[in-house]
Amino acid sequence: MSDDGKENVKSFIQPGELIGSLSAAYRKEACSFGLVCLAPSVVVALEFDSLYEAARTDLDLAQAMVDLLLAFAMKKERRGKELLTQ
Questions:
Q1: Residues 21 and 46 sit within 8 Å (Cβ to Cβ)
Q2: Would you list the DSSP string of 8-62?
Q3: Are the CB atoms for 59 and 66 separated by under 8 Å?
Q4: Rounded CA gap, 24 and 6, in Å?
Q5: Which helix (H) or strand (E) covers residue 65, if one does?
Q6: Whole-structure pTM over 0.90, yes or no?
Q7: In 10 A of CB 24, how many CB atoms?
Q8: What is the full per-residue pLDDT of the chain (86 aa) written as tens digits?
Q9: N or C, where is the chain less crowded by C-beta within 10 Å?
Q10: Residue 84: what are its φ and ψ, rounded to 5°?
């Protein structure tokens, strides 16, 4: 929601994809966006601190997190390019 009250759709998330605010989770701040499900959905919430701490000792989990973060960064990079060039 913008400062003037306008609601915007930031993105659509497909089944099996992840959504969340890394900065809000890491900095323990309020998330700057909300979620709306357009179809019946199952939402799984993960405690960031627990996940982050577990990744420090579990190499497989750490690698999975790196892979997810890389996919997230590439998606954001592609979206930024689309916004600037199309």
A1: no
A2: -------TT-----HHHHHHT---S-----SS--------HHHHHHHHHH-HHHH
A3: no
A4: 22
A5: helix 59-85
A6: no
A7: 14
A8: 778 888 888 888 888 888 888 899 999 999 988 888 899 998 888 899 999 999 999 999 999 999 999 998 998 899 899 889 98
A9: C
A10: -85, -25
